Amino acid sequence: MTVPPEDVAPDDVAREMDSAERAERIAHAVLSVLGVVRLDGGRFGEVATYLPGRRVTGVSLDDESGEVHIVVAWPATDELARSLDLLATAENVRAVAQEIAGVPITVTVEDIVATGRD
Predict the structure, then answer these.
(1) Long-range contacts for 86-92 (Cβ within 8 Å, ≥24 apart)?
(2) What proportion of the chain, given as a percentage, has pLDDT over 90?
(3) What pLDDT, in 10s, does the model give residues 26-82?
């Protein structure tokens, strides 16, 4: 499932951050979204922001757009998370990532991890 980007006007804060800082902030923020288990590099691990000596897996950015690939827990582990469906989780990720990136973000749910709950 892929959630397409919405139009977004870059703000001054996003413009001032370099791509490394933006990618790291996006990764941290996305991992705090309810229902997100982890970031995912895609089928061949190609979705990443490459930095000197390391990379931020699951976040890919350029000057005009970006991608975030996630793995989601299902069924959710608590009542609040159960009220969210996969699309709502992806929309929450997109909103958080776009706010930091200042460019349109596409979110892809790469996998769903079973929690063992009904």
Answers:
(1) 86/1, 86/112, 87/1, 87/3, 89/33, 89/34, 89/35, 89/36, 90/1, 90/3, 91/3, 92/33, 92/34, 92/35
(2) 52
(3) 999 999 998 899 999 998 989 999 888 889 999 999 989 999 999 998 765 566 555
Angle between helices 19-31 and 86-101 (to 10 degrees): 150
Contacts of 108 (CB under 8 A, 6+ apart): 1, 2, 3, 42, 67, 68, 69, 70
Q: How many CB atoms lie within 10 A of CB 32?
A: 8
Are 27 and 59 spatial neighbours (Cβ–Cβ below 8 Å)? yes
